[in-house]
Structure formats: structure tokens, C-alpha cells
Write a sequence for this structure.
């Protein structure tokens, strides 16, 4: 109820019945908790159930509302900015691994990153915001993960300027590359 109405709250583990304090008003747990809580949240000035400026889409015609189009264009711009990073990122990653393992070496971390981190991101952010009491605090989780990735990248990415990508190798790699490519005859 509190998170759904953007109320910042502190959770305390105490014994006894549930009580909620909203703007100095103490609300006791029980049958009328939800009704009393909604009234206290409204009295504190929170827009319970949305406000007049909330964008709602009830039908196909609502997609042509100026506010909905503005949000759609903003999302499109953010997606375009995110996609502009894919080319340089793929190029940088291709320079890190030798040719014979490049596809596997790029695929496994990408799938793990997208599947594990991206798949668990919503659940993790909900858990953080529920524990801390603020949904904006949970936004530091992906920021921290990206910062950790940057630090790891800065210390592990080799310099490949002026190096032929066919000559890139990993330290300790003992595999012998054939002098000539093996071709099957007809």
C-alpha cells in the first residue's frame, strides 16, 4: 500500500500489533488498517489512486494523447541511446579474445549478464525498495553493478591498438594455430 502510493517509509521489527505512523498520525493494525491508512495518506498529501497528471491508457485512442506520445518519444530516445552503445561494445569485446574462441567468449558472458543480472534485476530492486522503504534507493543497485563492471574492465582490458586481431591471444594459451587455413575440397 505504501509503495504503491510512492510513500517513503521506514520498516521496524517490533513485537506486538502492527502500527503505521503517517505524518504523525498513528494507525493501529486490524480490520480497518487499509481504510485508515488510505485516509492518512490522503491527509498527508499523497496522490492516492493517482493524480490528475497521471498518464493512463484505457484504449487505443489514448495513444494519440500528447502526453502519451511524449512519453513514447522519450522511451524511443532512451532505447536509441542504449543501442548506440552496442556497436562500440561489440567491437571492443571482439578485440579482447583470440579468433578461435571469440564467439564462445562473447556469448557466454553476454547470456549470463542478460539472463542472470537482467532477469533478476526487477525482483532484486523490489526487494531492496521494500527493505529500505524507498524505491529510488533501489536504483543504486544497477549503478553499482555498472561501476563494478567498469572497474573490472579498466584493469583487465588489454591494449590492442596497432595489433592485428588475428594475433590477439590470451596469456598461457598453448593452442597451436594452423599456418594455413584448412579448406575442404570438392
Amino acid at each position: 500500500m505504501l509503495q504503491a502510493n510512492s510513500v517513503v517509509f521506514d520498516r521496524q521489527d517490533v513485537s506486538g500489533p502492527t502500527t503505521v505512523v503517517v505524518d504523525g498520525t498513528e494507525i493501529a493494525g486490524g480490520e480497518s488498517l487499509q481504510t485508515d491508512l488510505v485516509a492518512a495518506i490522503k491527509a498527508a498529501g499523497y496522490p492516492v489512486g493517482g493524480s490528475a497528471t497521471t498518464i493512463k491508457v484505457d484504449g487505443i485512442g489514448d495513444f494519440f494523447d500528447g502526453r502519451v506520445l511524449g512519453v513514447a518519444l522519450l522511451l524511443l530516445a532512451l532505447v536509441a541511446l542504449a543501442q548506440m552503445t552496442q556497436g562500440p561494445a561489440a567491437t571492443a569485446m571482439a578485440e579482447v579474445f583470440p579468433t578461435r574462441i571469440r564467439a564462445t567468449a562473447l556469448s557466454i558472458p553476454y547470456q549470463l549478464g542478460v539472463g542472470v543480472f537482467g532477469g533478476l534485476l526487477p525482483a532484486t530492486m523490489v526487494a531492496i525498495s521494500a527493505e529500505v522503504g524507498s524505491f529510488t534507493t533501489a536504483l543504486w543497485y544497477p549503478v553499482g553493478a555498472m561501476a563494478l563492471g567498469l572497474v573490472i574492465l579498466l584493469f583487465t582490458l588489454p591494449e590492442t591498438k596497432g595489433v592485428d586481431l588475428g594475433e590477439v591471444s590470451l596469456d598461457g594459451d598453448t593452442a597451436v594455430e594452423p599456418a594455413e587455413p584448412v579448406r575442404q575440397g570438392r
Remarks:
- Residues 102-132 form the longest helix (31 residues).
- The beta strands are 19-22, 25-28.
